[in-house]
Amino acid sequence: MNEQRNPWQIIDGKEMYDNNWLTVTHYNVINPSGGAGIYGKVHFKNIAIGIVPLDDELNTWLVGQYRFPINKYSWEIPEGGGPLSEDPLAAAQRELLEETGIKAANWRKIQYMHLSNSVSDEECVVYVATGLSYHTSMPEETEQLVVKKIPFDEVYQMVQKGIITDALTVTAVLKTKLLLLENKLAL
Amino acid sequence: MNEQRNPWQIIDGKEMYDNNWLTVTHYNVINPSGGAGIYGKVHFKNIAIGIVPLDDELNTWLVGQYRFPINKYSWEIPEGGGPLSEDPLAAAQRELLEETGIKAANWRKIQYMHLSNSVSDEECVVYVATGLSYHTSMPEETEQLVVKKIPFDEVYQMVQKGIITDALTVTAVLKTKLLLLENKLAL
Fold it and tell me: What is the interface pTM, i.e. ipTM, of the complex?
């Protein structure tokens, strides 16, 4: 199979919903098997960004907030959205400072993903940040965030136990754990 | 902060789009800081399911397909959607058989996540399947899938190199690698 060729044909598309963060479009399509079908696509206007800040004693920081779409409280690494036109690293540095008051001397991109590629084009990128210094946080007005400093291995246990369920956080923590086990993370 | 209390208040909601897989609703809300705002929520009618089948020689199977929403070809673990009312394990067993022709004697749930909790309520669950036997695959009519058997460590390298970007697959592979490193996976 030719991986380059898109086997989906679009007959027409109609925008069904739009807000500052996403656009939902309904497409009439011909599917890869040649049959008529429909596809509802959610386009994201921002890339999701997550940061694992690590200090010299292997502590990290979690942010707690009530997540409207899942109707549940969620503990997560510092996260935010960056416009697709912006350098994700700049957005990551801004989000970490805003949410936790932390600046970092060293930034390392550890993972890039598509979060839900059967429905949306949402991308995410995860960084590990080290060489930390501590300043004043500036959370956004709409956010009611709780920030806590916590040993990284405790966070790893929270992932193992299913207490943390946010995909960006789970992946970031598993990847960071692997880097630590494989001795590939200079602190 | 009381983690149980939802600090978001819904003023009203209007369904903007609906198809067989998702519903998009626009809400007028009072945000946690007491300000007026809006929230566009994408509700998923299925839970996303992924399976890492592992044979005794540590081979696994990948499925390749062109993903419409990201307009890219994607190599992934066998995946599918199960109705929220169905036992996800039954859906996982059906999807694995349909896509790869594999039945497994042993199933282990290794991760549960919310894939994009700032916008959707999409859940996913990942299994490792061992004790494999080989039957006839029955892919769905709309799918044009390429299935390949491949050493698990090669798949881990594909994740490291950024060749694999699907979040469910990335997480499943990182978690499986950790279980293997920690000697917690009986084959």
Answer: 0.96
